[in-house]
Amino acid sequence: MIEHHIDIQTVDGLMNTFVVYPEENGPFPVVLFYMDAPGKREELHDMARRLATVGYFVVLPNLYYRRTRDYYLKERTPEQLEEMFGHMHSLNAHTSHTDTQAILSYVDQNTHADAKRIGAVGYCMSGPFVMWAAADFPDRFQSIASIHGANMVTDGADSPHRMPPKIRCESYFACAEIDKWAPPEDIRQLEQALVDAKNKHRIEWFPKAEHGFVFPQRAVYEKHGAERHWERLFDLFGRTLKV
């Protein structure tokens, strides 16, 4: 595997980013990996590597670069959680747009990346980000996945559940049964919006799973569900990016 720690220029500064892809036989389809709220860390690097091993050029940016280059949640104390939420709430549809635009410009210029075949996966707080990315750049994405995505339905005009009419690609949603950030009534609204827009999609519920169940270092990690989420990602990206 080839790994790089690089800076991607955005309109707001340098976004430190982890990039990983196979050693030979490129260029490779691209997967944008949008981090969860605890921040870019080695746990996510390992997940990006797992995607890259099956033939993808994976881009994992630190979305908190406007505030810090090296943050990740070390302990779930009240003080550290407050800091994490402060970072999380600094992001929105606008920052998602400019960051995605910068990443697309980067892969467009990288000879190891096949920028005509792009997918994205977002975890937790980044479930909305992949929706915004596909809506803002509908001609660039072939597929997106939201894994226990949070805040998928809000009162805002930019609510993720209002994005389906702008989205053209296939989407997959892995939903934890126990998740205060994505309650069933929200997912029902999201599903209806996808149906109304005639978007190709799949919403899958993971029984007894809790928010964050795919992360190996999280107390709520559930191995069976986590492995199934990998199967779904490999299937989605295999069908939509490797054709």
What is the C-alpha radius of gyration, as a whole number of Å? 17 Å
- Overall pLDDT metric: 96
Largest sheet: 8 strands, mixed
The stretches of 5 or more residues where confidence is low (pLDDT under 50) are none
Q: What count of structural domains? A: 1
Any idea what the CATH superfamily is called?
Answer: Alpha/Beta hydrolase fold, catalytic domain
Q: Share of helix among residues?
A: 25-40%
Give the N-to-C terminal Cα separation.
22 Å
What order do the helices and strands follow?
Answer: EEEHEHHEHEEHEH
Provide the spatial order of strands within the biggest beta sheet: 1-2-4-3-5-6-7-8
**SS-derived structural category:** alpha/beta
Number of strands: 8
Q: What is the name of the CATH architecture?
A: 3-Layer(aba) Sandwich
Coarse shape: globular
- Beta-strand percentage range: 25-35%
Overall description:
With 243 residues, the chain is an alpha/beta fold. It has one domain (2-241): Alpha/Beta hydrolase fold, catalytic domain (Rossmann fold, 3-Layer(aba) Sandwich), CATH 3.40.50. Helix content is 34%, strand content 27%. Strands 1-2-4-3-5-6-7-8 form an eight-stranded mixed β-sheet, sandwiched between helices. The protein is globular and about 45 Å long.
